[in-house]
Structure formats: C-alpha cells, structure tokens
UniProtKB/TrEMBL annotation:
Residues 2-218 form the Alanine racemase N-terminal domain. It comes from the Bacteria. This is Pyridoxal phosphate homeostasis protein. Pyridoxal 5'-phosphate (PLP)-binding protein, which is involved in PLP homeostasis. Gene3D superfamilies: Alanine racemase. Its cofactor is pyridoxal 5'-phosphate.
C-alpha cells in the first residue's frame, strides 16, 4: 500500500480524541510530502539536524514534534519552530527549554517522559520524580514552558499483557498527576503507542499516538 493509503487507513481507525503524530525520521521529504498531501500536518522527528532540514523544505503549516531524547545543548536549535517536545525527562532540560523559549519570547509545550518499560536503557522519570518536579518552585516559576501531558514507551516485547500492564501504569500516573494543575502545567495529553502497539495504547487511554513504520514503511 502507498503512504497515503496507510495513513488514511490508520486515521479511519483512530477515535476522534486521539491525535496522530506521523513519525518521519530517516524518511525523505518526498515521503513526508505524500503524507502532507493526504492531509497530515503533524510530523515527529528524533534528530534536531534532520528536523531542521525538513522544516526548511516543507510547508510552514506543519506542526513539528521532537519525539527523541533531547540534549540540553541542542534545545536552542529547535526552539524557533518546534511545537511539542515529547521526551522531557529532567528539570535541568526543562530549565534550558524555558531559557531558550524566553529568548524567542515563545511558549513551548512539553510532555514529561515517564519510565514504564523494563529495559534500563529507556529514558524517563519515575512517578516520585514526576511529582517532585511538578511541585518544585523552580518549575512553577518557569513562564515560557507549559507541561501539557506525559509520554511513555513500553518494553520492546511481543508479550501483550506486559505492554498492557505498562500502559495501564502510565495511564494511572497520568490520572493522578492531572490534579496538580498550575499556571504552566495542565495535563491533557497522553502520548503512548507506536506502530506495533497503538491499538492497545488507545484501549488503555492514549490520546496521542506516534506512528512511523506503519505509515512510511520499515526503516
Ligand atoms: C521511532 C519512534 C516511534 C515510531 O516507531 P514505529 O514503530 O516506526 O511506529 C515512536 N516513538 C518514538 C519515541 C520513536 O523514536
């Protein structure tokens, strides 16, 4: 099937409250344009250099999401155009995003990444670190970032029950921390689910899925 057909089929299966991020990392601009021409306006990339090049070449009504791990020293390069940063996993990084956003007089939306997988390698905060961060005075004083939700990645496994357990865990952390509403924190987005597990993620309460290979083919 073509990129357009893949995209339209996936979209037809998504509930209306679930946002689709088309993960276009490693794919050429022609492929992104095919998705764009089929109506897709939200694209996810995981490398700043690649995102910048594609941003320059693509129409300007696209929302660019940074879905990969972000290094503090790279933040300044994406602040001019990034719409949402999914993988924020420390107060230090949030501080740098706030600092760079202030220089551009912008407000940057962020998701805090929660560690839900068994693998040690996946980035993210645990529940206590999340609560601590959201309650810290340092965070409350940041006026150029807004935390609008949480993001997580399940363990890379075929075991559906394991994945479901991890998604349920993230959803429960999301529901609990929703109560911590402040000026720059209002959790309404739950980014979980990729090509292999997005249907399960939606059943578990996801409101944003990040889908790459099922749209653009394998990488
Ligand atoms: C690559 C990537 C995806 C998309 O993965 P697919 O399996 O191709 O859908 C989603 N989220 C993150 C964080 C990624 O790095």
């Amino acid at each position: 099937m073509s990129i357009q057909q893949n995209l339209l089929q996936i979209k037809s299966l998504l509930p209306s409250n679930v946002t689709l991020v088309a993960v276009s990392k490693t794919k050429p601009v022609e492929d992104l344009m095919e998705a764009y021409n089929a109506g897709q306006r939200i694209f996810g990339e995981n490398k700043i250099q690649e995102m910048t090049e594609k941003w320059q070449q693509m129409p300007k009504d696209i929302e660019w999401h940074m879905i990969g791990h972000v290094q503090s020293n790279k933040v300044k390069y994406m602040v001019p155009y990034v719409k949402l940063i999914h993988g924020v996993d420390s107060l230090k990084l949030l501080k740098e995003i706030n600092r760079q956003a202030a220089r551009w007089r912008k407000n940057i939306n962020c998701l805090l990444q929660i560690h839900i997988a068994e693998e040690e390698t996946k980035f993210g905060l645990d529940e206590n670190e999340l609560i601590e961060l959201l309650n810290s005075d340092e965070f409350k004083e940041m006026s150029n970032v807004k935390v609008i939700g949480l993001m997580g990645m399940a363990t890379f496994t075929e075991n559906q029950e394991q994945i479901k357990k991890e998604f349920d865990n993230l959803k429960s952390i999301f529901d609990k921390s929703k109560k911590l509403k402040t000026e720059n924190c209002q959790l309404n987005t739950l980014s979980m689910g990729m090509s292999g597990d997005y249907q399960l993620a939606i059943d578990c309460g996801s409101t944003m899925v990040r889908i790459g290979s099922s749209i653009f083919g394998s990488r």
